[in-house]
From TrEMBL:
InterPro entries: Allrgn_V5/Tpx1_CS, CAP_dom, CAP_sf, CRISP-related. Residues 1-18 form the signal peptide. The lineage of its organism: Eukaryota, Viridiplantae, Streptophyta, Embryophyta, Tracheophyta. Keywords: Signal. GO terms for cellular component: extracellular region. It comes from Sphenostylis stenocarpa. Residues 44-179 form the SCP domain. It comes from the Eukaryota. This is SCP domain-containing protein. Pfam families: CAP.
Amino acid sequence: MPSLLICIVLLLAPTISAHNRFDARSYFGYVAENNDTTFTNKTLLAEEFLHAHNWVRNQYQLPAFEWDEKLASYSRSYLMERYEDCLLVHSNSMYGENIFWGKMRYWTPSDATYYWYQEKQWYDFKTLTCAPPPKACGHFTQVVWRDSHRIGCALQNCQDPSMGMLIACEYDPAGNYENENPLQSHK
């Protein structure tokens, strides 16, 4: 009887774990065409990144992003540089950049965008500051930076599976300047 109980617990473990995980895709109203957990289809990957980002931008009546394959290629190249060490380190690009690290390998474009969006709770649009320290809001403000029009993103599993994965998005034109309202044009 104990082996039967162990078998049942092992079968339920993934279900319990998945049940407790927040569903960012549903939050953004994204329905994947298929369940490509390897994210090898660049078109579906771009579609999900755009859907999540543009959902956020729509909350602030901002123009939708357009996908830029040059930016996506830059993201892929940079994440390949991080393949072995999997460090959450920004590149020195001329673009605006958001990076996300996840310990497991199941994170989606919607997940990264959702966690960047959640930084809104610490951002004060009146004072243009993020509080309380050490909270960060720069990912959020880049997503809603009015003057950024193009986006390109990628995700990459780390070489060592125990190190998880990285997700990066590049934004053009770059934004995110201190003491400037991200929702206003700065042209």
